[in-house]
Amino acid sequence: MTNKNLYQEYAEKALKSFSLRAYDMGIHAGYYLCATDAYFHMLRLTMESSPESELTESALSFLIPYMGISYGEDRGRIVPCLKNICYEPIKSADVLKDFLMNKYPALKT
Prior knowledge:
Layout: H1 5-19, H2 29-41, E1 43-48, H3 54-60, E2 67-71, E3 77-82, E4 85-86, H4 93-103
Parallel strand pairs: 1-2
Antiparallel strand pairs: 1-3, 3-4
Helix pairs in contact: 1-2, 3-4
């Protein structure tokens, strides 16, 4: 969320250090697996649009696991990033909906 690679490296090291012990953690292994899933599937939406805009309201209407929202200056767009890959800025609610539906097919049901 902070765009600091050092935190990403810390997370990766922590997940790797527990990977061989997850089997022995019993019920607590679920927390490890959730953290690993979040590490690989975190969606960050950088909101560079006004809070009252249709684009912002559309983004906030989706319930997606591991979705984080950060805010930037108003440029009339949203920048979606998955892990460390950022996509083209999105400037309309319809394009945002299409993007999210393609990345998360389960939203279609």
